[in-house]
Amino acid sequence: MALPARKNSARRRATAAHPPKHAEAAASTPAPSRRSTPVIDFKAVEKRYDVGAIGLDQASFSVQRGEFVFLVGSTGSGKSTIMRLLIKELEPTGGSIAVAGRDLEEITRRRVPYYRRNIGVVFQDFKLLPNRTVYDNVAYALQVTGGSRKDIRAKVPDILRLTGLSTKLHNYPDQLSGGEQQRVAIARAFVNHPPLLLADEPTGNLDPETSIGIMQLLYRINKTGTTVLVATHDHQMVNKMRRRVIELSRGRIVRDEATGLYARDESTREFAARLRNDPPQTPDVVGTPDAIRAAAARERRIDGDGAVGGERRPVQAATTTTPADA
Ligand SMILES: Nc1ncnc2c1ncn2[C@@H]1O[C@H](COP(=O)(O)OP(=O)(O)OP(=O)(O)O)[C@@H](O)[C@H]1O
After folding, report:
1. Cα–Cα distance between 188 and 210 in angstroms, integer?
2. Assembly and interactions (predicted)?
């Protein structure tokens, strides 16, 4: 099965289904395609494990082509279950899952490896081949999918450049830092330019600075039109990236916001200020022209100089104000 090819249309404005709350802020983001079939479509999906544990409970959501989506939620809430269902490592016990319009139930075991060629997967623990060099780890991903030598010679250096690994071609995984190893894992997942990239806790083992670089890389990949789904516990990163957030709790989807924070938390001071209707405590007030300009500047910084900009914003920032409300 082939997922639909990415097109420039992926860069169009956001869909009506998940409009960005700050239209200007989202201007540099590849907007999801308005008309196409969702890349991911979960309808009332249930996953009950044999031991009775609930992995997912009536979970429904869809992701359009070109979106960047965070899955958040406490340990055991069902994030990895979603990832594993998507790569058909697990089967749902109820509901239906479609990827690019294809019902996963229709894909036979024999066809699963072909289906998976359309999905890049990145894990927290990198899963690199320890006795192969950086180059060979990435080349291997092409070899197993039948890539020719010519293909490998063309694509591997390209992807290693994109991921900032050009000088590490001949290193083995144990000669790399954690961040570099994760870059190799991302290079391997993306070398075939899959239309869908899944990352399960990609920064889970990395320090905050290194995590920023990894998230930037995923962001850059998303900007090529690839749909990216990231499961994470990384509060700060989610808050800074200001992308769609789907939150799970005990297998249920309890929140789905176009530009959400990790959690709808607010400090006691913010809460008190809100109750008293005090003026907000930062100039970055949602919906004002200043706020919109600041948000757009943060977007540019994520994409530009390596610093994912922006401090923790007041909780209103994640809610529903649009520029039209300003
Ligand atoms: N193979 C399994 N057998 C039985 N129960 C499982 C299995 N895998 C997951 N579960 C249960 O399903 C629920 C959801 O687990 P899942 O791994 O999807 O959560 P998660 O949100 O990814 O957690 P974490 O953030 O810790 O990775 C949990 O209650 C978990 O114990």
Report:
1. 19
2. Homodimer. Forms a membrane-associated complex with FtsX.
Ligand 1 atom 15: residue of nearest CA: 76
Alpha helices in the chain (DSSP H): 79-86, 112-116, 134-143, 149-162, 178-190, 208-223, 235-241, 268-276, 289-303
Is the shortest distance between the CB of 81 and ligand 1 below 6 Å?
Answer: yes
- In sequence order, which residues have a C-beta less than 8 Å from that of residue 50 and are 6 or more positions away? none
Q: Is the CB of 260 within 6 Å of ligand 1? A: no
Name the residue at shortest CA distance from atom 24 of ligand 1. Answer: 75
Q: Does 76 sit in the ligand 1 pocket, CB within 6 Å?
A: yes
Q: CB–CB of 229/199 below 8 Å? A: yes
Q: What pLDDT digit, counting tens, does each position of 244-295 carry?
A: 999 999 999 999 999 888 876 655 565 555 456 554 444 333 333 444 344 4
For the ranges 88-97, 136-145, 303-312, the lowest mean pLDDT is seen at 303-312
Based on its alpha-carbon atoms, the radius of gyration of the chain, rounded to whole angstroms, reads 20
Ligand 1 and 80: CB distance under 6 A: yes
SS3 content of the chain, % helix, strand, coil (to 5): 40, 20, 45
Contact 65, 15 (CB under 8 A): no
In the predicted structure, residue 185 carries a pLDDT above the cut 50: yes
What pLDDT does residue 10 have?
A: 39
Q: Count CB atoms within 10 A of the CB of residue 192.
A: 18
Q: Report helix, strand or coil for 167.
A: helix
User: pTM to 2 decimals?
Assistant: 0.75
251 CA: nearest ligand 1 atom: 14
Is the minimum distance from the CB of 124 to ligand 1 under 6 angstroms? no
Q: State the pairing for strand pair 94-99/102-103.
A: antiparallel
Question: What is the per-residue pLDDT across 206-239, written as a single tens digit (0 to 9) for each?
Answer: 998 899 999 999 999 999 999 999 999 998 889 8
